[in-house]
Amino acid sequence: MGRSSRPRPKYLGKKLLRIRDAFGLTQEEMVKRLAVKKEGLTHSSISGYELGAREPSLRVLLEYARLANVHLEVLADDTLELPSEIPSRKTHGGVRRLGRAAKRQTSG
Length: 108
Known about the structure:
The chain is mainly alpha-helical.
């Protein structure tokens, strides 16, 4: 594995913020709710994730996914949107976004 940077999910921060907002939690409360030991999470960590300045570890992402009751893929894949209801009643696979090519095909 090289040391070059890899592409980051563009919408990850917005999704994490939406999850926190759905529960009505402050950043400090989110740290406690995630309860990921040995991660050293602080409200600054949560802020960095939501602003896209930092990328959470897989453990932290997994806890966000469990909290929202969505598959981890929904958080990591920019082509999937969070369900309208958070937490989802059943484990949700996300809502597929239509790409530009697909939109042209369905509108023409």
